[in-house]
């Protein structure tokens, strides 16, 4: 396998060098070690002594089919069918002088089979090195080819700590209390930037965690190059940076509050507030949370960059409860998102695979259930089979029912270059889905921690008159069946 990316070669060499240097003194035979009376530099340096090199081998197979009655489909047709694997290496140094360290991580992806080549499968690598490169290839996200095998670095960071302050800079993932998050595959996306945070303990009065993050580029898990940020008009309007600040205060009485603000320069402002409380019900703890998430855009000119009419928001209630071996989740959301977008998501960037933002809700039932006006209820059950002498096994099931999804208020016609008000505002959509899963984690032996999962979802859209991603509902698709199989084998080298 040849790599033409010299930057990647340099970073790969850096990872290899870090691994070699971190193992010096650990792999030498006893006869080659210095006298025990002479302390070695590595034994005195936590940068090396506390280094860790871990990794994982990931296997993924998926078969997703979709029916589109509006297009004349009477059967489910292949939509995303592929098999791929990832090999991940993750190096974390200790802290020199108890202050300075580095982190390096990379992934090798293997595309084993792919019968839907013009759909990004998000496990293998895309032929588009970045989101914006698709504009050089007629807008096709895969840049005219299939998903591919390859390798890349997804973390290359310097880290600093001096209690209670910590700093990360380089190719990083968010770690603090900000709104910024990343897209996920088996590996996370990466921002280019820096994050500073602090953890302050006030004894019985509580504890404060706070952080600030500034970034100017992003790389999705399936891309291999850092990309700039843009507004919704392709590569016409650049977003120079994004930043966010947030905090969490734990009152140490089972009650905590969170708040954060995020901004993409000249484009989107995003806010969140959340309260969390845990209390006993029938002698068992019930966790309860309420979250309010809001966003507005800077454009009020009826262009494609004019995402919302006024402020869009999501309200969410989340409950968690456990009865013996059964874990229960009950959650609900309510969306308000009038305007051209017609949906509310946590993404500050509004372009696919260009970064993400915190939304706190993940139901793994295919749809985002986030159209304007939409209300949704989720119920999830997970049953650990320990009492059946099946330690490590669990089964889970969940379901979502969502109603009152409204269409976009207006659409932008790119051919005309203007706002068009031709959307029937009387349309409504109901969505529902259910999922079942079977999981097993190896409990002991050399394979301890190895994880196997089978997961099936069936999704229903009760409106058969509209095609998937219709102009009226650009984030809603037609009926689907989705089957996923996954194996994760973690390992530790040092």
TrEMBL record:
Species assigned in the record: Thorsellia anophelis DSM 18579
GO molecular function, one term: porin activity
Domain of life: Bacteria
Assigned protein family: Belongs to the outer membrane porin (Opr) (TC 1.B.25) family.
Record-given protein name: Outer membrane porin, OprD family
Gene Ontology biological process terms, A to Z: oligosaccharide transport
N-terminal signal peptide: 1-32
Annotated Gene Ontology cellular component terms: membrane
Keyword terms of this UniProt record: Signal, Transport
């Amino acid at each position: 396998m040849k790599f033409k990316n010299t930057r990647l070669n340099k970073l790969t060499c850096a990872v290899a060098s870090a691994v070699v240097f971190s193992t010096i003194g650990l792999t030498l035979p006893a006869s080659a070690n210095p006298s025990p009376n002479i302390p070695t530099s590595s034994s005195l340096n936590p940068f090396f002594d506390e280094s860790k090199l871990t990794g994982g081998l990931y296997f993924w197979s998926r078969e997703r089919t979709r029916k589109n009655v509006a297009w004349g489909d009477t059967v489910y047709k292949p939509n995303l069918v592929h098999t791929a694997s990832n090999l991940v290496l993750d190096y974390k140094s200790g802290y020199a002088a108890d202050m300075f360290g580095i982190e390096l991580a990379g992934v090798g992806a293997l595309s084993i089979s792919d019968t839907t080549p013009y759909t990004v499968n998000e496990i293998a690598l895309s032929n588009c090195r970045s989101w914006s490169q698709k504009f050089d290839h007629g807008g096709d996200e895969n840049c005219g080819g299939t998903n591919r095998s390859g390798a890349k670095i997804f973390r290359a960071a310097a880290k600093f700590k001096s209690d209670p302050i910590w700093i990360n800079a380089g190719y990083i993932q968010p770690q603090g209390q900000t709104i910024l998050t990343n897209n996920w595959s088996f590996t996370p996306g990466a921002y280019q930037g820096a994050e500073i945070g602090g953890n302050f303990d006030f004894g019985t009065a509580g504890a404060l965690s706070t952080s600030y993050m500034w970034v100017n580029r992003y790389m999705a898990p399936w891309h291999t190059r850092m990309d700039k940020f843009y507004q919704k008009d392709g590569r016409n309007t650049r977003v120079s940076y994004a930043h966010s600040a947030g905090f969490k205060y734990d009152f140490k009485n089972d009650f905590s509050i969170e708040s954060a603000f995020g901004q993409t320069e000249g484009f989107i402002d995003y806010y969140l507030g959340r309260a969390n409380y845990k209390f006993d019900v029938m002698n068992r703890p019930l966790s309860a949370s309420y979250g309010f998430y809001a966003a507005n855009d800077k454009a009020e000119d009826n262009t494609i960059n004019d995402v919302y009419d006024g402020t869009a928001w999501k309200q969410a209630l989340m409950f968690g409860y456990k009865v013996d071996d059964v874990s229960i989740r009950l959650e609900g959301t309510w969306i308000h998102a009038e305007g051209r977008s017609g949906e509310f998501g946590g993404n500050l960037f509004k372009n696919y695979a260009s970064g993400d933002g915190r939304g706190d809700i993940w139901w793994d039932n295919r749809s985002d259930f986030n159209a304007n006006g939409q209300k949704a209820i989720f119920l999830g059950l997970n049953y650990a089979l320990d009492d059946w002498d099946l330690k490590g096994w669990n089964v889970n099931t969940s379901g979502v029912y969502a109603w009152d999804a409204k269409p976009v208020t207006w659409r932008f016609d790119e051919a005309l270059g203007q706002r068009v008000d031709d959307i029937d505002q009387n349309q409504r959509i109901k969505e529902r889905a259910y999922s079942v899963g079977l999981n097993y984690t190896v409990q002991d032996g050399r394979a301890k921690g190895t994880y196997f999962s089978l997961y099936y979802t069936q999704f229903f859209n009760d409106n058969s008159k509209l095609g998937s991603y219709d102009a009226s509902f650009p984030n809603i698709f037609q009926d689907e069946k989705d089957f996923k199989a996954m194996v994760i084998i973690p390992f530790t080298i040092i």
